[in-house]
Amino acid sequence: MVYVLSRVMQLETVRLWHKDTDLQGCDVIVLPGGFSYGDYLRSGAIARFSPIMEPVIAHAQNGGMLMGICNGFQILTEAGLVPGALLRNVEQKFICKNVYIRPQTDRSPLTAALDLQKAYKIPVAHAEGRYYADEATLRQLNENDQILFRYCDASGQLTPEANMNGSIEHIAGVCNAERNVFGMMPHPERAADEALSNTDGRALFESVVAKALQFQS
Q1: Which residues form the active site (predicted)?
Q2: Where are the alpha helices (DSSP H) in 25-169?
Q3: Residues 27-42: pLDDT tens digits?
Q4: Distances (CA, A) of 202 to 7, 43, 114, 198
């Protein structure tokens, strides 16, 4: 994530440690993927209480942009910053491969610049990525246009096979009602460098940067 933000996107990037209590003036906060605290208990459940999360939560509550990828998305749900939960994959196995996701809205900094008709090829790497929300929450997510991505096939169709982790309604990412906090399970930073022969993920970062610059101006 740091490589893509600093080298590919050419952005001033600050590494924040989990024991830090100061965001050092960062405009956009990114909670990256990985295995915080060994994924003990539930993925993200312990990291949610890291010292850095207090200013991160305050940043989000004050309208600041906050992005969570994979384990970062799990932390967002554990902290109640986005609706829903991430459960064990339906086949109880770790999944690491390229998948396709289709953006569902252009009303989020993460998706505003994306083609809603395109299936973006983005890698996943998780064991607890099955998105779940109760019926009332799902209704709210759909009515408020808070669903960011759904798992699909290469042509954009929502087939059962494309929903490899069993997420409810194929959901791969959501945002909060205020649209400044957004999370997704796939890893766009792993599809943002030409050296990897896939730059579909770069479009997501370009979208966030464009919105951040608009906000600053």
Answers
A1: 70 (nucleophile), 187, 189
A2: 53-61, 71-78, 135-143
A3: 999 999 987 766 666 6
A4: 12, 26, 11, 9
Q: Where are the alpha helices (H) located in the chain, listed in sequence order?
A: 2-3, 53-61, 71-78, 135-143, 202-216
CB 124 within 8 A of CB 99: yes
Helices (H) and strands (E) in the chain, counts: 5, 9
The tokens for 74 are 């799990």
Domains and CATH numbers, the chain: 2-9+26-216 (3.40.50.880)
Report phi then psi at 154, rounded to 5: -60, -20
Q: Is the pTM of this model over 0.70?
A: yes
Q: Which two tokens stand for residue 88?
A: 């064990």
Which token pair is 142?
């759909």
Percent of the chain with pLDDT over 90: 89
> What is the identity of the amino acid at 152?
C
- DSSP run (H or E) holding 52: none
User: Could you tell me how far CA 96 lies from the centroid of its own chain?
Assistant: 16
Token pair, residue 181, equals: 């906090």
Token pair in block for residue 203: 């479009």
Catalytic residues: 70, 187, 189
Distance CA 195, CA 209 (A): 22
Residue where the block lists tokens 């479009």: 203
